[in-house]
Each structure stands twice: as C-alpha cells, then as structure tokens.
Write a structure and sequence with these properties.
mainly alpha; 3 strands; about 5% strand; globular
C-alpha cells in the first residue's frame, strides 16, 4: 500500500571510534542474551544476523562502495544489514547522498554492539506484530512485505533453521556476557 509502517528509528548513541572485532561465538552469545533480555525468542536476532550477513560484522551491500549509487537506497552494513537510507540520524531523502554520508552513517553498523542495539527495537516491533520468527524477519526486510510473498523468505527460513540448530547445540551452555 506504499504506507511507511516501519517502527521509528531508535535514538542511538554514537559508536566508539574503533569498534572491536567480534568472534562468531561472541556474536551468537550476545544475540541470544539480548533476545533473552527483551523476552524475544532466542532465534530471532540470531536468525536475522545469519540471514542478513552470515554473522559477518563487516558485511556490506554492495561489497564495492563504488556501486553504492547503483544500489541506492539498498546500501547496508553490519551483521543485521541496516540500510543507510533508513538509519537513525540519516540527514537526506531518497536521493543518493554521496560516499561521505554513506560512510559516516553506514560505518556505525560495523560496530556490532551499535548494530545490535539498532536491530533489537525493530525486530521486537515486528515480533510483537507477527509472533512468528520468519514472518517478523520478512517484515524487518523493507519494504516489510507480506511475509508469504517476501522474496527473501527462503533466506530467512535458512537463517531460522541455522539459528535453531545453534540454539539447540548451546542450550544450557551459554557463555556469560561481560558487562
């Protein structure tokens, strides 16, 4: 229907200048812990990260920044592949803003903690609408299409299955997350 039904972006503090590099196991543990903290299924954040980036902190779409204008507005970074165009603090409109703005906004999402805190309220919003992990993930992926017709549904199903396998293997053996 063309209506913008995304939840409003969270007000996020700026990330540290130099994000630390996270291991896959640390990303998994933090996704599970934040899901637990928010009362979400353990698989929700994890499945999103798997489907969007295979839990790659430095994932980028497109992989070559010289193609950003061709992909715009589908230019995204980080584990959860948040798009620059819809990021909190984005100063522009639908026109490609140029490489400096893409870098300024997009590079924040290479910081896993920042990206996680940006993804949590969005995924929680869609979980509360759908009460189904895969459907919530389909809504997370703008344009928040009907989950049954979202062209990325198979990828989210893949992420969900892998997340289920990880959670099952780790049940009762979660690493405590440092403060």
């Amino acid at each position: 229907n063309g209506e913008d039904v995304r939840p409003p972006p969270a007000d996020l503090p700026p990330p540290p200048e130099e994000p630390r590099v996270w291991s896959r196991d640390e990303i998994i543990d933090w996704c599970i812990q934040r899901s637990e903290d928010e009362g979400l299924p353990w698989t929700l954040l994890l499945a999103c990260g798997i489907a969007e980036s295979n839990l790659n902190q430095y994932a980028r779409r497109p992989t070559d920044p010289l193609l950003d204008d061709e992909y715009w507005p589908d230019v995204s970074m980080g584990v959860f592949q948040q798009t620059v165009r819809w990021a909190a603090g984005y100063p522009g409109d639908n026109e490609f803003p140029g490489p400096d703005i893409v870098t300024e906004i997009g590079d924040r999402y290479y910081n896993f903690e920042f990206a996680l805190e940006a993804a949590v309220p969005q995924l929680k919003y869609w979980w509360n609408q759908e009460h189904d992990v895969v459907n919530a993930l389909c809504r997370y992926n703008w344009p928040a299409r009907d989950p049954l017709t979202n062209p990325n549904r198979q990828n989210y199903l893949r992420g969900f299955k892998e997340a289920q396998d990880i959670v099952t293997a780790r049940s009762g053996d979660l690493v405590e997350i440092p403060p």
